[in-house]
Amino acid sequence: xxxxxxxxxxxxxxxxxxxxxxxxxxxxxxxxxxxxxxxxxxxxxxxxxxxxxxxxxxxxxxxxxxxxxxxxxxxxxxxxxxxxxxxxxxxxxxxxxxxxxxxxxx
Length: 106
Fold this sequence. Notes:
Layout: E1 2-5, H1 9-16, E2 19-29, E3 32-45, H2 47-69, H3 79-85, E4 90-105
Antiparallel strand pairs: 1-4, 2-3, 3-4
């Protein structure tokens, strides 16, 4: 899992303790939901690796928007320059160790 963030509390916390988790939920109602929980380790990326992965991330978001909405988002081509205009983002990877999930559909 690739992510990025500005410097701040979240990045400081992950640097101090590299054991992290991420949860994604989709809730349609009390009886119709699903969730996935990922456990892994935080790895801060730098240099060319970070730039490359940030570019790949932007391209995949662009492709997803094109597939889902049938449009060609121009904002994606400006993605990297806007990020760097706000200060250099911290690019990181979560190295997955375990994935669990639950759902209810009744």
